[in-house]
């Protein structure tokens, strides 16, 4: 019997590979002879670099960059096995996890560090880029990133504006004379699952800024500033980025990639599936196990387990989901290809207890699943 383990991370507790290792141990407790193939997964957010480095035999690059509040932090990105493709999680430089809750303020936060990651990869010879843009702490339309790559964002007096979403109101002109020309020689795939426009009621500010620390007044200010920014972008490169689906992703970072990088947006899970050759592996499997921290009706909107389940359905391979918690509407996932879905919770416990014991709980759940399968295979 051959089993593919293709899980996302269990956020706050285990990486995707750690989760796969736990599931494998549970399987092997029942039958040592089962062939297990582990393919760590992600959807463009946390864990994307790890997943792609593993499946392509790539390498990690560690560098110091500016965090969302322009403080120096240790960061990283990956170079895939081909030596020419960089995989970057913008959250590793400009993400919410880098800030304390009381530090969240999208009027001030910047994507400058994301630009530094791209610059370093360009210096390493990379000309193909996969950028995961989930988990941002920013709402600056990618202005900080552009600045790090040599663009000059100027006010009416010709001085460079400050960093952050609030400063965009002062923007008068974007000077691209010093913008890194290697950008134009490169290809950018933006791994993202949202289709929000830059501005308006479904825009970056209205939908995502509150979780980044914005109150109602700040949301309005940020939305106005992004609209103004978009007008200057149009004057500069003759591209209207306001209503492009996905332009509002990561606080408007999507708009900068569409406008200045000719970026192409793809669903994060689709990118990982393609580069990991997961479909080829699934075709030869008897069972696939996938999962993540929580599974509910939103999982069917394109999250990792959904993408894998649809692929299994295509090739008539049974797929089982394992998760920390089963949320509202999880039953709808059975129509998406899942044979069954299991929660790892085996007794009443707090969220903190579940997170602390995820490794053991995953192993135990995998063992129980295999014992059930063995009953019907014996």
UniProtKB/TrEMBL annotation:
Pfam families: Gly_kinase. One of its GO terms (molecular function) is glycerate kinase activity. It comes from the Bacteria. Its EC number is 2.7.1.31. InterPro entries: Glyc_kinase_flavodox-like_fold, Glycerate_kinase, Glycerate_kinase_RE-like, Glycerate_kinase_sf. Keywords: Kinase, Transferase. Gene3D superfamilies: Glycerate kinase, domain 1, Glycerate kinase, domain 2. Belongs to the glycerate kinase type-1 family. This is Glycerate kinase.
